[in-house]
Amino acid sequence: MKRVLVVYATGSGCTADIAGEVARTLQAPRVAVDLWPAPADPDPAPYDAVVAGSGVRRGRWHQSLETWVEECAGVLRQRPIAFFSVCLTMATHPERAAEVRAYTQALVARTGVAPLGVGTFAGWNEPKRFGLLERGHLKRLEAPVGDFRDLDAVHTWSRQIAPKLGVAAPTWLTPPTGPAETTVAARIRPASRASS
Fold first, then answer.
1. Selection from 130, 106, 101, 132 nearest residue 117 by Cα
2. Could you state, in order of their start, the residue ranges of all structural domains in the chain?
3. Collapsing DSSP states into helix, strand and coil, what is residue 9?
4. Which residues contact 54 (CB under 8 A, 6 or more apart)?
5. Model confidence, pTM
6. Could you give the CA distance from residue 94 to residue 119 in angstroms, rounded to a whole number?
């Protein structure tokens, strides 16, 4: 049985939903997938492969995921890993995907953790999901309001990255339905690094 860890950082919940879709899509016979938020500090050592993704704020991942990658770099350099970034740029300027992929370059340079692929996905700007400062920043940027997530693109990328991670590519065209927490990580999760 192959074990895959999907770890994410989110501010508004958008990236949590996308991480859940990645985890659900990677499910396959003989593949166990666990879904963790970065602040929970999951231990990557028991896993055969890792996917790490974050929302982007001002051209950077959330600090909790950057810190997790830095602290776990020794283990992560020994595992196949993929990154994904979620931001509004992909909704408003999809031609800038290379720029969005580059948001992780400084992290890669600092840690030596080299992803086998970097997915780029549009997020949302739903003001009620952001704090006052973030809402003000998005308003000053004149960011479009709405949910721009393309779950088909998330599923396609997840199926394409699966073989690079050393797991069987899922055979379904769309992943099983249902909440990610229920279908992906309903079993007892391993201890976080902080509790071990």
1. 101
2. 2-174
3. strand
4. 8, 9, 10, 15, 38, 61, 62, 65, 66, 85, 86
5. 0.81
6. 12
Which string of b and e fits 125-146 if b means at least 16 CB within 10 Å? beeeebeeeebeebeeeebeee
124-155 residue pLDDT tens = 666 566 665 665 555 566 666 677 788 899 99
Residues 6+ apart with CB under 8 A from 164: 80, 82, 116, 117
Question: Token pair for residue 2?
Answer: 């192959």
Mind listing the pLDDT tens digit for each residue in 31-89?
A: 999 999 999 999 999 999 999 999 887 788 989 999 999 999 999 999 999 999 998 77
Q: What is d(CA 30, CA 38) in angstroms, rounded to the nearest whole number?
A: 25
Tokens of 46: 């028991």
Class of domain 2-174: alpha beta
Main-chain dihedrals φ then ψ at residue 188, nearest 5 degrees: -65, 130
